[in-house]
Structure prediction request, 225 residues.
Amino acid sequence: MSVEKHTLAAGTPYATAYYVINSGTPGPVFMIISGVHGNEPASSRAAQGIASRFSRGDMRLRQGKLIIVPLVNQTARRKGIRGQPDLNRTFPRGPGSSARHPLSAALWQLVLRYRPSWVLDLHEANGLSQLNPQRVGQSLIMSPASRAGGVAKQIIRRTNLSISNQAYHFNLRHRERAGTFRMACQRLLGARAVTVETCWSLDYSFRIQMQSEIVRQFLRAAGLI
Prediction:
């Protein structure tokens, strides 16, 4: 297994690190991104933690490749804001369309280079989905047409068994939103694409733990670990 660290959008104000973990054995390509919004810190911490475990050899791939971009939007993170414009509305919306921001364009070129069959986009949100169906904190979000639905339901069931407070349980949400990274990967690549949302109001360490565990469960479901 090899772990390589590279720079996305090198030489620009948007430069940020990404990792390519290669098992050396043929298999699925899995991509994880986080930090598209600069005010969602636990998701990026979890993604960086996963990358660091592979770098140290604490985790290993059985097959395939794993691409991790732990902190996509460095500019928004430094300001502690969601981002202006919202980067997660600037990805290609259909065949023949292009990304509408230099950073989303650079990320999309990375997607086209590796063509992942699995995609996780890690986020955080305001409000608990268990208490308010209009909120998406503590949820997995996907298109109704996504082929990841069965796996996501199993992961939600297993994750909720480990959470004693029912208000903090995860739920499945079906949403279509053009311009998002998730929808671009699903519509244009046919990837099994899922958005993972923890809730801002919960303890920071708990959010990191939940993000990390959900990532590991998806990697196991895809046969990578």
About this structure: The chain has a mean pLDDT of 97. The longest strand covers residues 118-125. Helices lie at 41-56, 74-79, 102-114, 149-161, 181-189, 204-221.
